[in-house]
Amino acid sequence: MLQTNATISKTFFNHPTVVAVFAAIAVFLTYGTVYAFRKPFTVATFDGLSYWGISYKICLVITQLAGYVCSKFYGIKFISELKKIGRWKLILILVGISWISLFFFAVVPPPFNIAFLFFNGFPLGIIWGIIFSYIEGRRATDFIGAALAVSFIFSSGFVKSVAKYLQLHWQVTEFWIPFVTGLVFILPLLLFVYLLEKIPPPTDADIQLRHVRNPMTKPERKKLIGDFLPGIFMLVAIYVSLTIFRDMRDNFAADIWNELGFANQSAIFTETEIPVTIIVLILIASLVFVKKNFNAFIIAHGLIILGFILSGVSTWLFLNKAIHPATWMILVGIGLYTAYIPFNCMLFERMIAAFRINGNVGFLMYCADSFGYLGSMLVLLGKEVFQIRLQWVNFFSNAVMGVSIFGVIATIFSVVYFLKKYKKGFTIWNNVQPSLSAPAL
After folding, report:
1. β-bridge mates for residue 359, sequence order
2. CATH for 21
3. How many domains does the chain have?
4. What is the pLDDT of residues 102-117, one digit of tens each?
5. Residue 246 resides in a domain
6. Would you list the DSSP string of 226-279?
């Protein structure tokens, strides 16, 4: 008996590889579009504006970061307890609030409009956890999560190019750039959220090999932190340094490129981020072929060390005028995101699977994110309070060197801790051996 077209289509869509590719595309496009409501204001320099002895742009960045910090701390509880019903509505409501905030940012005169960047940042900080909840706990989560994670590399550059194009060719003012850029991406967002909802849930095979992912209660969260406190502390410290590093490069890319002599090249943001996106995606996604969860967890540490080394060495070469500035920015980007992306897609995913933790990635990720963004905000505040007046290129390059040295040392300590923990056969909540297989796509 011949299968109907609908049955064939359903069977095809349920094939693991098809589901993985579809989910990767859906999360990449959805989260990438969300960036259009967060990053476009950073292409503006707001020259000549300052309040309370602080440059206006720094005020905006710090205020949005404050919203993100509050959002991430709130998300530790909210995302860890998130149910799977009505997630698409929540995404659209949160993006809508952030977009409306950008409208008021445009119409309210400075400095009073600075506050609206807080209300822009807070709702956007919740969205990553909601989107990741669609894809965690699968054999292909490494691959899908890598697509989600690299979306903000490409999208950060892409939306800045769009914003810069609107500024240069449509004469959109610096205050209206964020809102108008968001307007361009509204319809795509609706489509991509629809696709997100079409991702099938994890299969029984996924659950067996990557462990079930449930909302977490407060006692479960406390137990997880208590059981892994030294390791989690070290990973959070590494992530804090990476977040500071990444935010500096992301928020002040326009200033850095201006100092490097690329002021009027709107495509430079996208052109330099495309190779970074492709290389990092290949590196991280390839871990889906590592069958043993704990092995993949340790390899991720190796990638983090590799990323720090690449960033530090390329910066040393740049400071010694051995490589072109654009080459330096690309290499630093590859190094930064090679170290940063594992946290956002597979490090905690494989940790949960290897140690059979009863919980979800969102809890661990928001613990790291909250302190990461707090650290980034404090660095910017400290720079302004102590009136450190360095050129952005010098400030950024010096920061890269310091972060790279710290990152290599801290990651080695993390590897040693988790190796000892695993060799003891440590599991929590159930006395079973860690799952050691995860078939490739």
Report:
1. 213
2. 1.20.1250.20
3. 1
4. 999 999 999 999 999 9
5. yes
6. HHTHHHHHHHHHHHHHHHHHHHHHHHTHHHHHHHHT-TT-TTHHHHHHHHHHHH
